[in-house]
Amino acid sequence: MADLFKRCRDFTASDDAKAMGFYPYFLTISDSEGTEVVIDNEPRLMLGSNNYLGLTTHPRVREAAAAALNQFGTSCSGSRFLNGTLVLHEMLEERLASFLRKEAAAVITTGYQTNLATLGALMQRDDVAVMDTSSHASLYEGVMISRCRMKRYAHLDVKECERVLSGVKEEKNAAIITDGVFSMEGDLAPLRELVELSQRYKARLIVDDAHGLGTMGATGRGTAEHFGVEDQVDIITGTFSKSFASLGGVVAGPASVIDYIKHHGRSLIYSASMTPPSVAAALAALDVMETDSEPRERLHANVRQMREGLVQLGFKVGTAPTPVLPIYVGEEMRMLAFWKALLEHGVYTNAVLPPAVAPDDTLIRASFMATHTSEQIDRALGVFETVGKLATLI
């Protein structure tokens, strides 16, 4: 019989990258105050975090997590389905349902598991999932475990989405499934057009707004608010590991749908629930979002300052008004050398490689926080200028 572990021994890509000095993953952070981190005993300016509103260090969030720890302990030690539902979980669900203007919401242990529970429960074998090719891996995996049919359309291509929908038989249940803000490119899903298609073809619209909640829309309710289509998006999912400064996820929609997911979503039923400090931190972050617009405004001001500076320097960058700013490089090794030089000059960013992007369309993913200062953005621009000239990118 063949050895199951042979493929593991044959996998050398990570060791090869380490030997060349271009391995961009699993870097160890030994200290962090949010915008500045320590890696290999050297301070780095953090331009690779999803802590968009900077709330992981907010006093109210830290105090709420500590109070929950003291009252409830470190863990619920069980599933929401059995012994893992605290009054805190129900408070957060009620608050989020109101915040997202939906009938009900359920909170689940992680954002990834939220999409598995949602799609694994709702979609069945003969149903059809119509998906943007750049949708998050958790959406794809949720669809795959449901065993429904999957049909894809080119990234942001509304016309191809319509072509795919027009080929679905009328008797089939169908759902358009997309990110709100795409995590690598920072693109916005064309929700107005997708809403129109979903209504015309009687398909449901499911939006994973992990990177949009807290950052997009006049009050931070996300991409649907940004486009003015909140009432027409059927299901919204999201995560607490970004703007909510915590860990966990949420699905919001009609009460009957949320109740069904709570009783059929396997990743909810068979996983321990969010820890008390995580729930309390998310509640406190929501308090800040609902009462203080300044962090969101500062976040977007920081992104604008960085984007305008990079364009003036001659870089090719993304144009969507989101907190994710891609800097397009092209060939894979050239991008890795650029990423490493940025890190060595004190700026941490994310290297985006295939299969997340095409082999000759690699990019540096920069993301920003409300707590970055204008001086820090200027410092980052100075590093990009220096390294960009050395790499002959500008």
Describe the model.
- The protein has 394 residues and is an alpha/beta fold.
- It has two domains: 6-56 and 293-390, Aspartate Aminotransferase, domain 1 (Alpha-Beta Complex); 57-291, Aspartate Aminotransferase, domain 2, CATH 3.40.640.10.
- It is 42% helix and 17% strand.
- The chain has 15 helices and 14 strands.
- The chain has helices spanning 6-10, 13-20, 59-72, 87-99, 111-122, 137-146, 158-166, 191-200, 223-227, 255-264, 266-269, 276-291, 294-313, 332-344, 374-390, and strands spanning 29-32, 36-39, 42-46, 104-108, 128-132, 149-153, 174-179, 204-208, 235-239, 249-253, 324-330, 347-348, 350-352, 362-367.
- The strands form three sheets. The chain has a seven-stranded mixed beta sheet, sandwiched between helices.
- Helix 3 packs antiparallel against helix 12 (276-291) and helix 5 (111-122) runs parallel beside helix 6.
- The longest helix is centred in the C-terminal third of the chain and has 20 residues, at 294-313.
- The protein is globular.
